[in-house]
Amino acid sequence: MSPLDVASAITRAHHEEWARVVASLARRFGDLDIAEEAAAEAFAVAVERWPHDGVPPNPGAWLTTTANRRAIDRIRREKKREDKHREALLMHDGDPHPPLGAIDDDRLRLVFTCCHPALGMEARVALTLRMVAGLTVPEIARAFLVQEGAMARRITRAKDKISTARIPYRVPSAEDLPARVSGVLTVLFLVFNEGYLATGPGTDPVRPGLTSEAIRLARLVRALLPDDGEAVGLLALMLMTEARRTARVSADGELVPLDRQDRAAWDAVLIAEGHRLVRERLTSGEAPGRYQILAAINAVHTSARDTGHTDWSQVVALYGQLVRLDPSPVVALNRAVAVAELEGPQAGLAAVDPLGQALAGYRAYHSARAELLRRLGRSDESRAAYDRAIGLPGHSAETAYLVHRRDELEGPLG
Question: Is the pLDDT higher at 78 or at 363?
């Protein structure tokens, strides 16, 4: 096997086996620090040995065995065997206690541990990316625009809280599962959104590494909870959104809105999978949740050959359903934009304007007003709305688009 093939095998093993190895060690030793460090050491050993010894027939088993040995060496070295229970863990591969929870899967237990509601949302996201996705601390720090040391401390505090608060390493009981799944999906959605359009102005606007990790974790949750409609809905939403990624930013670094994207550049395979998942949920007969409705809206958009052929009445109706589930001003704004496409810019503006107080600091509100005023021929007001949007925090790619649109007002309206 060539060095390139070995390197590819190690990369593939890291993507496919990291969560499984960490989860196995966390179950056995009950310590996330030990699990993380031993898993990292096992992969370091693989990088050293596999080019000479060859890739083992079962890379996951090799990595798990190696990581277990490293963990035991560390415990013995640091004399952390506090009692006979600890020694029992060192002597036996299995957990002496049966797992508690609705589903028996080490990886799912790890996901729920990292996303425990006792942790702050930032800590949940960081810990999930480190322990489940296997991203390094520098990678996570870069993704969320914080110093490496600050991110390391955030992850350490989260692990310490899990330890000191005795947060159980298990899947919640059946009656608690729906509420806890919701928290997990929220974390994954935040990770995906940060990758799809970064919040910081000085970074790449789109980060495929984050979106792909979020999709991979969403696939894991969906595989482990196949009957959870919102898990299916979130995966479908991610797939159809990811399908448009390459068309989202122009060669000049400007954000490209949906109505101006080259639909031929969209990934038809991802769209087809997303549509299939949406249809699967429609045939279930269950009332849809937030992610399922958002996925259905994306299915309508990605079914149309262009904006003019979009079924806007269906989009407005779906947003009406979403408003009933989530009556937030941001959802109301999205519905208002759809109303403008269905009934015209005056109707859209009438729906947007009442949201001004709640969304005064929200860039998308002012940019939506600017576009609607532009379509109504109210250029001075449109320019002022663009200026207000440009002055608010956001990514430089989005700013470039808004500046371009504002400056076009000097000439013919578009």
Answer: 363
pLDDT value for 93: 43
Give, as one character, the DSSP assignment of residue 293.
Answer: H
Cα dihedral: 338, 340, 341, 343 (round 10) = 120
The b/e string for 220-236 (b: 16+ C-beta within 10 A; e otherwise) is: bbbebbeebbbbbbbbb
Domain of 81, in residue numbers: 3-91
φ/ψ (deg, to 5) at 249: -125, 135
Task: Confirm if 130 and 32 have CB atoms less than 8 A apart.
Answer: no
Of the candidates 383, 379, 354, 380, the residue with the CA atom closest to the CA atom of residue 367: 383
Of 31, 58, 91, the residue at which a domain comes to its end is 91
Cα separation, 87 vs 72, in Å, equals: 10
Q: Let me know if residue 351 belongs to a domain.
A: yes
What token pair was written down for 263? 């639909």
Residue 53 is encoded by which pair of tokens?
Answer: 């010894």
- Residue 55 is classified by DSSP as -
Give the pTM: 0.77
